[in-house]
Amino acid sequence: MKRTAFVFAGLLSALTSLTTVAQTTPTSPLVGPMQQTAAKLKALQPTGDPDFDYVFRMRLLGQGAVDMAKLAAAQGSDAIKQKAQAFVDSKQKELAEMEALQRQLRPSRPNGAYSQQQSQQMQAIVLKMQPDGTPAKMTGKIDDDYTALMTEYTRDASDLSKMYLNYGNNATLKTMAQKLVVQ
Questions:
Q1: What are the tens digits of pLDDT across the range 35-54?
Q2: In 3-state terms, what secondary structure has residue 176?
Q3: Could you tell me the maximum CA-CA distance found in the chain, to the nearest angstrom?
Q4: Where are the chain's structural domains?
């Protein structure tokens, strides 16, 4: 009986601690779109064709960034609102171009080396988006969170683009990828 009471008290203490941590950990409205993007990327079945897979994944990643930017444009400070809206405007044009290209492409030439590297990069991106990854670093201040998440997006887009440039064949996609590479 004493042991049961002791175990119950321990569980109650642990639950109280978790509740306190959950209440003190800032949340950001930007986490939702980020985690939705992670789920879509995780569920995507790659074809192994560098051109097709790159454009498909970059569209998903870019759309997630647009969704976050729209929230920042609606809820951030004036400076962030302007930056976020400018990002949305330019990225939506790029996403429309990618969508048109994707409709033209058909997966045709699987590349094992590309598939392996792509898989590793996607696992790293998805892992960062898990609750104990980037979301755990959110401050709850939309301007700061937006800046941090866009830094991550830029790094991820650059890394995927660098890898694509090593394996891709589509000239238009290569031009787009080159623009996304951060020097």
A1: 898 889 888 888 999 999 99
A2: helix
A3: 74
A4: 27-180
